[in-house]
Write a structure and sequence with these properties.
The complex is a heterodimer of chains A (about 550) and B (about 220). By secondary structure, chain A is mainly α. Helices cover about 75% and strands about 0% of the residues of chain A. The chains are: A mainly alpha (about 550), B mainly alpha (about 220). Chains A and B meet through helix 1, helix 4, helix 5, helix 8 and helix 9 of A and helix 1, helix 2 and helix 7 of B.
Chain lengths: ~550, ~220
Amino acid sequence: MDFTVSVLLATFILSVLALFVFIASMAKGLFGSGGAAAVQIFDADELGTVEDPAATAKQRGSLQQAMDPGHAMQRRSAWEVATRLRADQSSSLVVGVCLTMAVVWLVLASLAGLVSSIKLHAPDWWVGQAWLTFGRIRPVHLNLVGYGWCSMAGIGVAIWLIPRLLKTELVGAKYALFGGALWSLGVVAGTVAIATGHSDGLEWLEYPWQIDILLVIGGAMVGFPLWLTLLRRKVEHLYVSVWYIGAGLLWFPILFLIANWPGLHFGVQQATMNWWYGHNVLGLWFTPLALAASYYFIPKVLGKPIHSYNLSLLGFWSLAFFYSQVGGHHLIGGPVPSWLITISIVQSMMMVVPVIAVAINQHLTVLGSFRALLYSPTLRFIVLGGMMYTAASVQGSLQALRAVNTVTHFTHYTVAHAHLGLYGFFTMIMFGSIYFIMPRVMKWEWPYPWMISAHFWLVLVGFGIYFTGLSFGGWYQGLAMLDKDIPFMQSVALTIPYLQARTVGGAVMTLGHLVFAAHFLMMGWKFGPRRLGAALLAPGPAVPASPASPALVTAKAALP
Amino acid sequence: MSSAVGKWEMDELRLIVGSMVILSGATALLVVMPYMLLKDQEPPPGLQPYTAEQLAGRQVYIANGCIYCHTQQPRDIAQAPDALRGWGRAPVAADYAYDTPHLLGTMRTGPDLLNIGARQPSKDWHLGHLYQPRAYTPGSIMPAYPYLFEVRQGAALPGDTVVALPPAFARPGEVVVARPEALALVAYLLGLDRTYPALAPLSVAAPAAAAAKKAGP
């Protein structure tokens, strides 16, 4: 028993000590230069200038009115505008490819999810084919979402952000392109493996290890451009988003490699490893990518820096420290050492620290500017995603408490929670980011603004139905399972209406995704009426080759 | 001020070192320590290794994603009434000595299966239930698995394992024959039986054993 106590005590003391060091250093103002790093993403005199390429000219005018009415936008230096144009252009091919793949995966993943959902209340539907059975199409859905849509979208957004954050051109785009291709190949092969019954049998780690090699190498290669570009950075300070992207790109290949190493893990040890991975892929891969995007786009769209740079530093390190140890809460009540579960529960509660840090930072940045949500499509998705991050995280912490977990573990409630995180938070932020990025990548505006609105309302309403239905259904299911006088079959029967509601919600979400994908393709083929307006940084093909080029004059002249 | 900037500023080196140290810590805690604690554990004397057919059946269980609806980890009676439902005692790590990959599961859309072989020892029931769950459990939402079976017109051939369906679900002039996958899966399910007495739980036993080793010569 002394072993258990000493492990627990050591972890706890270490956590609390680390926390005090941060608080003390913040109180003493030791983080220094916070202001300088926070405004690093803006050019000289750019503060106060709104930016949302997804907005129409009218929306953009209203956005500027709402934020800083008297601001004159002509003050930016031509050299900086040219730098940003070249930064955007240097990443456009690889970003365009990654995001296109992501959208394809999103549509396929939605369809697989919808089929899985229907099968739970129509168990004799489409049972003749092995690959369509629930136990295969459900992991196909999860892996297409995780490694297809979320990872590809996250990588695409991260690569687009890198040159902007470092104010230079992307170096080594070809590595990312090759890495992304390997990764996509892995997703295709992995999907086929699951559908044909060659799963490894672990949740989140279904792909056979031979296929995993593609994702490890691909994942490491998409990180190369970040490190190569960092060598040539033209900024003094690294902005918050760079930390998140850098750490995420380092963490993923290592996590995935250890988790999939063949012949290494066994029995119950494999179960603890499974959830060490299962939670870290969310906390140390998806979450950092989405937070990096929201830390960039919220201040960028609004034209004002984040609320507190020091808080973002606290948020980053406490997220890394606490999030990486929460996995054991998936095994509460299971045959695993009790000290491990207790540590994970403690760290799940400690997750409140980074969550509050991010929440204060992001919500206080937006506070007072809520009218901006009316005019900026990007911001609408990203602020919604940020709110869902807070909600999902607080819910996750509470769910790790034994009393709550006893009810929700093994039920649909957990599935609803997982979707609040990966859909409500991550996917919403990716939608917003893609709306911002694509006009820059394609040098073409979104053809139909109404489709952006339709997409937003469909996924919001669909997800509302999905989440509410499944959360209530799962909670009642859990209560029924805990009552020894209620037969097990009743805990199944009572969920049926909620499962049907989930199918309705999921269908509406899928419809939203089809609208989004259609709009995305129209843009890809430069289809539809070309909207006139000032959404582009500098309209026309003229992009100067070097800061000294005479084309600068064109760029300057073209400014709104 | 400038020295303070240098002290707390984030740069590439701090980012890489810091993120790697933190990941190593978490990995040591959640992966390496369970590995050290569990790697030398002996299987309990009451636990039989899986037969070749049961292992093949375990692969069918994995291939068809049974874990997405079934757990294999009954909870302690203090936490949940699992034992009262006949799902068995709370297991300990040693009960999974032969279970790689682990199939603990996270979902109870269906019941726990760690002791399904003891609870439902009928091969006929399992075969029929896989072919059409609703023939045995009205209201079940488990998928039917017709692709694990073959429907033959007329009589069965010698060597066929014919599924004995309830009369309401049997069609005249047809026999339903189990494919090898179905037979293997049922062999695996029938082998799921951890009703022997549990070894002492790990968190107490492992350090005690380690201490005993240290105390020895």
